[in-house]
């Protein structure tokens, strides 16, 4: 029987759990005993176009080193911010890629990433169909933003949500020690979807009610309502803690930090927000003349393996395994998804959906999961978030710091 050979790539922004999906694919490929080569693209599809790849079976031979990969954050294979053109725009890239596939006798292609990565899977699978290529193209979701359509949630989100909630709790404890009026604004990633910011509500305990206010990009931001909200909280307590998405917009649809001197765009034209917290900090100080601090979590919420969610890592590993089962079953042009069976007890199942119906779309928080005042979340959203941050991850340490996978191969040209 002819052996299978596959390519695996990672693309977009890093997460705590994306290597768990990579580990799941490798583990399943080994388990089937049908794969001769499991190639990893170095720096995603862009690296593959440049013929940069490695055979992962030369490195990951035991359950121990696969488990070590599962518990290492960021992206073992590296990433790229490259939007694959259509075949009509760049036929050479497609012809070059498929020549490589033919030379290496590739049977399966797995791409782990977010929205733009699913666009790559859709384009490659469509082209494969036009030339009657038998290669199976499978997308595996990942993004801390939780904004991919078609899936209950995305691998990587649960761990980032746990980091946000933990950081918010620690900020609340830090802010509680002084007897003076103060406002702390915590800016959290989320261009158009406020899932991560909503997760800050998970910090609330019997000893802590913060964040006192939560502002999400799904609803318009109103300056006067914002200041009145703070005024109302000040009637009850001296320290106000606010969670805000980086991508909140005013009633005209303009980002609060659009005029910031720091505003810039990435390779896909997305605004790279850097200033929403500062804009609000100035606004609050001018109104209340109290101590005001803004904190931007920024990339810290992406790869914090030390506070990862066990549920997230286990699910991310499992969806990688399911991806292999799906391609071996003959499916192509699909993205793996989670379906939620139940909240309490929490239960999900793996499935797949047509990737072309998912790519380039965004899943945002349903409006009915945001309170009427637009400054908090509902219990329904809390119940959706709560299971995703459960369980603590045990990682190995060396010389007092976490010991992660060797990524020297990313430093070489």
UniProtKB/TrEMBL annotation:
Q: Which SUPFAM superfamilies match?
A: Phosphofructokinase
Molecular function as annotated in GO: 6-phosphofructokinase activity; diphosphate-fructose-6-phosphate 1-phosphotransferase activity; metal ion binding
Keywords in alphabetical order: Cytoplasm, Glycolysis, Kinase, Magnesium, Metal-binding, Transferase
Where substrate is bound, by residue? 143-145, 189-191, 246
Q: Subcellular localization, per the record? A: Cytoplasm
Q: Which residues bind Mg(2+)?
A: 115
Q: Where is this site: Important for catalytic activity and substrate specificity?
A: 116
Query: Which cofactors are required for activity?
Result: Mg(2+)
Identify the residue position(s) of the site Important for catalytic activity. Answer: 142
- Enzymatic reactions: beta-D-fructose 6-phosphate + diphosphate = beta-D-fructose 1,6-bisphosphate + phosphate + H(+)
Q: What is a single cellular component term in the Gene Ontology annotation?
A: cytoplasm
Q: Which GO terms describe its biological process?
A: fructose 6-phosphate metabolic process
Q: What HAMAP family does the annotation carry?
A: Phosphofructokinase_II_B2
* PANTHER family, per the entry: ATP-DEPENDENT 6-PHOSPHOFRUCTOKINASE 1
Q: What is the role of the protein in this entry? A: Catalyzes the phosphorylation of D-fructose 6-phosphate, the first committing step of glycolysis. Uses inorganic phosphate (PPi) as phosphoryl donor instead of ATP like common ATP-dependent phosphofructokinases (ATP-PFKs), which renders the reaction reversible, and can thus function both in glycolysis and gluconeogenesis. Consistently, PPi-PFK can replace the enzymes of both the forward (ATP-PFK) and reverse (fructose-bisphosphatase (FBPase)) reactions.
Annotated protein name in UniProt:
Pyrophosphate--fructose 6-phosphate 1-phosphotransferase
């Amino acid at each position: 029987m002819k052996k299978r050979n596959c390519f695996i790539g990672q693309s977009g922004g890093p997460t705590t759990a994306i290597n768990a999906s990579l580990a799941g694919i490798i583990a399943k490929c080994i388990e089937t005993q049908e794969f001769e080569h499991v190639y990893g693209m170095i720096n995603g599809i862009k690296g593959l176009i440049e013929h940069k790849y490695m055979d992962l079976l030369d490195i990951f031979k035991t359950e121990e080193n696969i488990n070590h990969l599962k518990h290492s954050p960021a992206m073992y294979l590296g990433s790229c911010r490259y939007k694959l053109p259509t075949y009509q725009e760049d036929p050479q890239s497609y012809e070059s890629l498929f020549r490589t596939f033919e030379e290496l006798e590739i049977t399966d292609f797995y791409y782990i990433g977010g929205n733009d990565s699913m666009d790559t899977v859709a384009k490659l699978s469509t082209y494969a169909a036009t030339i009657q290529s038998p290669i199976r193209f499978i997308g595996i979701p990942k993004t801390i933003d939780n904004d991919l359509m078609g899936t209950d949630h995305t691998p990587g989100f649960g761990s980032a949500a746990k980091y946000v909630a933990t950081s918010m709790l620690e900020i609340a404890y830090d802010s509680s020690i002084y007897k003076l009026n103060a406002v702390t604004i915590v800016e959290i990633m989320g261009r158009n979807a406020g899932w991560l910011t909503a997760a800050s509500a998970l910090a609330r305990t019997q000893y802590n009610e913060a964040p006192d206010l939560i502002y999400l990009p799904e609803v318009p931001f109103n300056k006067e309502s914002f200041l009145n909200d703070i005024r109302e909280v000040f009637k009850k307590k001296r320290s106000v803690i606010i969670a805000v998405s980086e991508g909140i917009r005013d009633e005209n649809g303009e980002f609060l930090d659009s005029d910031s001197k720091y505003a810039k765009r990435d390779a896909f034209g997305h605004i790279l927000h850097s200033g929403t917290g500062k804009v609000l900090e100035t606004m609050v100080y001018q109104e209340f003349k109290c101590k005001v601090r803004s904190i931007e979590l920024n990339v810290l919420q992406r790869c914090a393996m030390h506070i990862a969610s066990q549920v997230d890592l286990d699910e991310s590993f499992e969806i990688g395994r399911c991806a292999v089962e799906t391609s071996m079953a003959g499916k192509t042009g699909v993205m793996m998804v989670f379906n939620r069976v139940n909240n309490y007890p929490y239960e999900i199942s793996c499935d797949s959906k047509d990737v072309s119906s998912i790519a380039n779309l965004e899943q945002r928080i349903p409006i009915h999961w945001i309170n009427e005042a637009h400054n908090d979340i509902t219990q329904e959203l809390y119940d959706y978030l709560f299971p995703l941050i459960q369980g603590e991850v045990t990682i190995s340490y060396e010389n007092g710091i976490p010991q992660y996978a060797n990524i020297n191969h990313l430093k070489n040209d």
